[in-house]
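Final report, closing paragraph on structural work. Over the funding period we assembled a curated collection of sequence-structure pairs, and we close with a single example.
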Amino acid sequence: MKKVYPVFLLILGFQMQAQWDSCGVSNGLSNPNIQTIDAFIVHQGRLFAHNTSTGLLYSDNDGNTWLPTNSTFNGAATLLFEADGKLFASTSINGVLGGYQYYSSDNGATWNIDTAGMPRSALNASFPASVIKAEQLGDYIFYQFNIPNAFQWRHKDSSIYHIDSYANINALSGWTIENDTLWGLLNGDIQYLTQAKSTFSPIQGNDLPILASSHIQKSGALMFIGGLDANLDWTLYRSANYGLNWDTVQLQGILGIGAFGLRRGINKLHFQDNVLWLGPQSKGQGSRGEIFYSNDNGSSWNIDSLNLPIDQFGTNAVRVFQGSGNYMFAAMNFKDVYRKAIGNVGLNEKLMSDVSIYPNPSSGLIKVQSSWSIKTLRVFNAQGQLIRETSKPLISLAGEKPAYYQIEVIGNKGERAYTKLLLIP
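Its predicted structure, as stored:
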C-alpha cells in the first residue's frame, strides 16, 4: 500500500454569514445542560428529535417550530433510522442497557412495537438489546447491537435475526452501506459485500494500520476513515479509488486535549455534497462547542464555534450530522439541534471575501485589512471567551499562551466575519 502523509494545512480565512443557529428543541427542557437530545433524523422531509422530557418532536419547517408526536415509547428513543420506507425508533431503558424497537409507516403519526425475534440484552434478558446502528442492504436490514454477536441480519418482512459470524469474529469496527454494497473495516482491512448474509471480500493490499475506528464515510470512489493510528493519534485515512490506496492526514494537532485531560477524539464524521464534516469530542468543562468542515477532502479544515453552546460539564458533542434542503443539521447530545445554511452565498457573504489578517501565525501585533470600514475587532480564546476588543484594525496578542484563537470582525454596516484559526506559536 502506498502511503502519502500530506502536510496538514489549516484554512486561515473567514467564515461567511451562514452560521450555526439553534433550532429551539431545548426550549422545552427544564435543564438543557443535563437533559440530552437523545436522537435526531430527517425522514421524508420532516425533522424528528427526541429527549426524555418532551418526548418525540417533529418540525415541518426546517426546525423553526416543533410539535409533539403521538409516540408512546417505552424508554428514551436513542436511535432513529430508516429502512423499507419506514421510520424506526430504538429505545433504551435506564440501567439495563436494553430497550424496545418501534416503527412508523406514516411519517411518525402512529407507531407499532417491533420486538419479535430481537436478540436479548446481555444485562437483563427481559429487554431486547439496544440498537447502535442499522441500515438496509437489499431486502435485509443489517443491525449492530450492544451485545456479543453484535452484527445480525433481518429480512425486512421477517422477525428472524441471523448472526453474521464473520463480522463478529473479525471485529467489524466501522461500516457503511452505499449503493447496495456494505463496506466495513475488519482487522485493519477494508472489505465489502454486495448481498446480505454473503461472504465479505477483502480489497487486496489495503492493510490499514488503524487500531480502532467506527467512523467510515463513502461517496463513489472516495472513502474516509477517522481512526486511531499506532501512536493513538486521531488520523484521517482517505482513498480515492475504492480503498485500494490510502494516504493520511494527521488530526490530533488541531483536536488537541479534550475533557479530563485526555486526547480529544472524533465523535462524528459525515460526508455530503463534497463537504467533509467532523464533530470532535468535548474540549472539557466551560469550552465552546466546535464543528470542523473541509471542502478539499480533509487537506485543510475550517472550524466553526461562535454561536455554538458552552459545554458546562465536558460532555457535549455532535451526535448526528444530516443535510436536508438548504441546511446542514447538527444534533448535539446536550443543548440542542443546530442548523447552518449551505449552498447559497448572499451579498453580505461576498463582502467578507476580501478580508485578510496578517501576520498569521503571530504572537505580537496583528492587522486586519478590508475594503470596507471596520467598526470592531475582537479576539476569542479556544473556550470562546473574549480576551481582546478594539475599534482599530490593529490588536496585540503579546503575552497570550501558544494556542489557536478566533477573530471576529464587525463592519460599520454590520458586516461580520470570523477567522477560522489564528495561531500563536
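Residues 1-17, 344-353 have pLDDT under 50 and may be disordered. The chain has three helices and 40 strands. We thank the funder for supporting this effort.
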